[in-house]
Amino acid sequence: MTAFLNHFTFEFKTGLRNPTSMLMNYLFPLAFYAMMGGVMTQINPGFSDVLIPAMVIFAAMVSSLLGLPGPMVESRDAGIFRSFKINGVPAVSILSIPALTTIFHSLIVSVLISLTAAALFDGLNPVSWLNFALLTLLVAFTFGAIGALIGVISSGSRSSVLWSQLIFLPSMLLGGLMMPLEVLPASVRTFSGILPTSYAMQAYLGYAYGAETLLDPRVCLLVLGAGGVLAFGLALYLFNWDSKNNTRRGHPLLALLALAPYLVGIVLA
Amino acid sequence: MNDVVISIQNFRKVYGDFVAVSGISFDVQRGEIFGLLGPNGAGKTSTLECLESLRQPDGGSLSILGVNPSQEPRRLRNLIGVQLQTSGLPANMTVEESMRFFCAYHNVPPRPDLLERLGLSEKKRSQFSQLSTGQQRRLALALAVAHRPQVLFLDEPTAGLDVGSRTELHALMQELKSQGTTILLATHDMAEAEKMTDRVAILLQGSVVATGSPRELTATGSGFTKISVRSEDSLLHKNGTIFPGVNQRLVKEDYAIFYSTDPGATVAALIAHVGAQGDKLIDLRVERPSLEERFLEITQTGGSK
């Protein structure tokens, strides 16, 4: 337990000490929130209704997809995981503790957004704060697991950026954050079913806001939960201690299995 | 001393078509400092990494205190300490954080005494990236021994260290040895190996080409003792006189250098000659062949000598 706490404390401090992590965990999500709250709500008043969930999902995406994989790849390449291994740090700790601290940072940002959005930008508060909080945990977990999986399978910093952007950009544009899924053309809407943000946004609308949703919120919960668990399981299975040692249990493309729940979601939802 | 702590039997490691280590065998006894010497690519790091369970062997058997590193890596963790060639720690981890971090995973209390001993206590709040290379290596050593392992692996431990730190490291190694710690030292520094090790194995192209104590190895070489003489008038630089036991002579800077198979007779004859010629002796050095010379001899002949 002491080892876990020491490790967690260190990783949490890293999220504040490291300028890039600080940017991804706090500065970028909060600056974007301020911009969207100030500008987007003026251009599109309907955006106020989804400002809180959209910005909470955005915060989780930025910290997990843009902030988590890079340092993981750098640590592996710098031989830090090797040092950890010979000192008895288990693979599950190396993967889960940075993901947990990233989740923790994104939860702090989520609290800041949730508590200020109504006062600052006329953001609509959830009707069920409990459901909102539980969903925020689930969303942070799912993105944390995806970030860990990207960190594990990326052969270098460049490929980690590529994989992250491959999820991040479509999620921003087509995942229901900037515009509702309902207004997307049918073919694009089907494609958006492969993005975790689509399910996250629909789950918030259904469970936290009591609104009518395009997708079945129960399916959204299942897809998000299964997607997170599968991504973390695959990250653990494909984890490699050492960039110089290519022996690993499976081909990195096995990571594509993490898409399975979303493909099922397209059919079910 | 007849207690085998590290046993390596027919150990083999290949990378694709490249055979890095081809069936080497040797044992290391308890409390011994054992040197693993060899040029780059000889197989030293592959051997160490398989012993440390960072890589899987492709043949043969490895055992540390009866534990097979590839089958029981978790059991091995508290038995061994490892200082890797490149000390990999997170850039923003402070010295005291790293001590707390690793000691917690080894389930032992942190060792501020080690930081003090290795001159790092003033740097305890410095981040790893702010330390000099020497300080980083000293920290890596402190972390490797903090849980009092029975077996210590040191990979080029003095690379980048200044003279004072090096002396301190050697003193610490001797102290650990006296407490019964077995040390496997991979080094390029022959002077260090000669000074610190009880026995060495010289690896060349994945095979052990020589084993023994540094004294044994140097004795089995060409057998010549090097005698260097400097005199006021440099009369020994002339090639005319024959001295007993001398096989080869040369002049280097102000010194006349003789390679002798009978150093006692040669030295006596040289002193007598200098006196008889009215010259004045300024310096006389008798050196047995160093491990470095023997190492070069072995590696240049491909281990055939």
Structural summary, described in words:
The complex is a heterodimer of chains A (269) and B (305). Chain A has one domain. Helices cover 74% and strands 0% of the residues of chain A. Chain A has twelve helices and no strands. Chain A has helices at 2-17, 19-43, 51-67, 69-77, 80-86, 91-121, 129-153, 157-174, 186-192, 196-208, 217-238, 260-268. Chain A starts with a helix and ends with a helix. The model of chain A has no long low-confidence stretch (mean pLDDT 92). With 305 residues, chain B is α/β, with parallel strands linked by helices. Chain B contains ten helices and 13 strands. Chain B has helices spanning 44-51, 73-76, 95-106, 112-117, 133-145, 163-178, 190-196, 214-219, 263-276, 291-300; strands spanning 4-15, 18-29, 33-37, 59-64, 80-83, 151-155, 182-186, 199-204, 207-212, 225-231, 246-252, 255-260, 281-287. The longest helix of chain B is centred in the middle third of the chain and has 16 residues, at 163-178. The mean pLDDT of chain B is 88.
Short summary:
The complex is a heterodimer of chains A (269) and B (305). With 269 residues, chain A is mainly alpha-helical. In chain A, 74% of the residues lie in helices and 0% in strands.
